[in-house]
Amino acid sequence: MSMAAKYLGRGLLCLLAVAIMVPVVRWAVGDHYLRKAQMARAEMANHPTPEHLRDLSGIAMQNIGWALDWDPTSPFLIRYRWQLRDDLRNLGQVSAAGLDKQRAELLLALRQTPTWDLIYQDLSILCVNSGQAGPSYAPCQPTLLTALRLNPTRAYYYELRGDVLNASLPMNAPPEPAQVEDICRNYGRALMLIRYPDHAAYLKVAGRAYDNCLGLTRDYQVLRLLNPWFEEDFVRLGSALARLDDAAWERVRVPLIADLPNGPRIHEYRALAQTLGKNGRPADGLLVVRAYLKANPDDPRGWQLMLGYLNAFPDAFGDEAVREAVREALSSSRPDPKHWSLLAGYACRLKDYAGAERLLRTVLELHPGSFEALAALGECLASSGQLEKARLALQKALTDNPGTADVWTNLAEVDRQLGNQTSAVEDVHRALKLDPNHRRARLILKKMGVY
């Protein structure tokens, strides 16, 4: 082989090595500067002083600029610089000037990666923030719709589209029904996609979505497009819709209650019932409670919800309604100690001492030694003046479960009324050992003159 051929071969190998190494070096150096920019951007999120913020923003912009010097066509770096500029604009560090240049940079990134939905998202945000799109935001719609087409599972796109559509409504004319439906539908899709992954983000989006949609309509067939799910959603709906006139409310009431989640999701039912009651519709709130009982007949919490609701609105229902609910609960539920002890407590507060004692002794026949039943029996017997029986029941309750400050306090009060001051002081000290801040226990000591 001639010398010329050898040198030619070596030259070609060198060129090949350079062709391979240059992109690698460009990427490595660009990545180094990108990491520095990311570190500065992360510190900017920690609310530094204005002087420190200016220093950090300068470092971040300088390093991302150097990264782009090494890899000027990288769509990721171009997009990152745009995000950084947008952060600084939101922090008041830079003006909105140079938007055409930013748009040109994003379009360059788009040419490199034409199917990357995040570039279309950034172009949409840039369009909205520019203030040049006009009241209809028509120029912003195509890029946002393209982002949705490329990635229909990203909640933020639906949220942004709902915001854009809401902002584009005419100021001096009522919106078309189709426009309102489109806004609520997009918000509803966003909320459905983030329902469980991020509850904090859900609440943030839901607040704006419900405010905007409730500001546009009271038509529940449209509002249900928001896909209400959590108790906060039903509180918002209940607060707004309960103020409708009676005829309009009648059209809303049945579908609203029907949309409450299936299964033992008692918090949503409680939230809606309480909201309706507080807004002047206690009878309709009771219908919500009964809807829960009908859907979950074996859940004892339903009767607790019923009795709690009736007691929360005494002017609307009165003691007789509570007595009827207790009787209904006893005839339709299984003898669960905690549940029946709670019902007995309601009966006792209504001074139906004989009924409460009969109920609790039935529980004890089925569940001998039940702590809940013995504690409730002792409290009820004490309220009816049967102090010796009360003392015996409370002592039995504490035999197997001595770790409850409330029961020790009840026993102390019984001993005090019986004149057993030494025992009463010991009982109070037991309660305070479990709960040093127990107010009722300290009050008993004060009654006895012990400090």
Helices and strands in order:
Layout: H1 3-44, H2 50-70, H3 75-90, H4 99-112, H5 117-130, H6 141-150, H7 155-167, H8 177-193, H9 199-216, H10 220-223, H11 231-241, H12 246-258, H13 266-278, H14 282-295, H15 301-312, H16 314-332, H17 337-349, H18 353-366, H19 371-383, H20 387-400, H21 405-418, H22 421-434, H23 439-447
Helix pairs in contact: 1-2, 2-3, 3-4, 4-5, 5-6, 6-7, 7-8, 8-9, 9-11, 11-13, 13-14, 13-15, 14-15, 15-16, 15-17, 16-17, 17-18, 17-19, 18-19, 19-20, 19-21, 20-21, 21-22, 22-23
Structural summary, described in words:
Among the domains are: 228-333, Serine Threonine Protein Phosphatase 5, Tetratricopeptide repeat (Alpha Horseshoe); 403-451, no CATH class. α15 packs parallel to α17 (337-349), α16 (314-332) packs antiparallel against α17 and α19 (371-383) runs antiparallel to α20. The relative contact order is 0.03. The chain contains 23 helices and no strands. Helix content is 76%, strand content 0%. The chain has helices spanning 3-44, 50-70, 75-90, 99-112, 117-130, 141-150, 155-167, 177-193, 199-216, 220-223, 231-241, 246-258, 266-278, 282-295, 301-312, 314-332, 337-349, 353-366, 371-383, 387-400, 405-418, 421-434, 439-447. The longest helix has 42 residues, at 3-44. The protein has 451 residues and is mainly α.
Index terms:
single chain, 451 residues, mainly alpha, 76% helix, elongated, Serine Threonine Protein Phosphatase 5, Tetratricopeptide repeat
The outline comes out as elongated
Number of helices: 23
- Look at the structure and give the mean pLDDT: 82
- Residues in helix, %: over 70%
Question: Which structural class do the helices and strands define?
Answer: mainly alpha
CATH architect. name of the domain at 228-333: Alpha Horseshoe
CATH class assignment of the domain at 228-333: Mainly Alpha
Percentage of residues in strands: under 5%
Sheet of most strands: none
Q: Examine the coordinates and then state which fold CATH places here, giving the name of the CATH topology of the domain at 228-333.
A: Serine Threonine Protein Phosphatase 5, Tetratricopeptide repeat
- The radius of gyration computed from the alpha-carbon positions, rounded to a whole number of angstroms, is 34 Å
* Elements, N to C (H/E): HHHHHHHHHHHHHHHHHHHHHHH
Low-pLDDT ranges: none
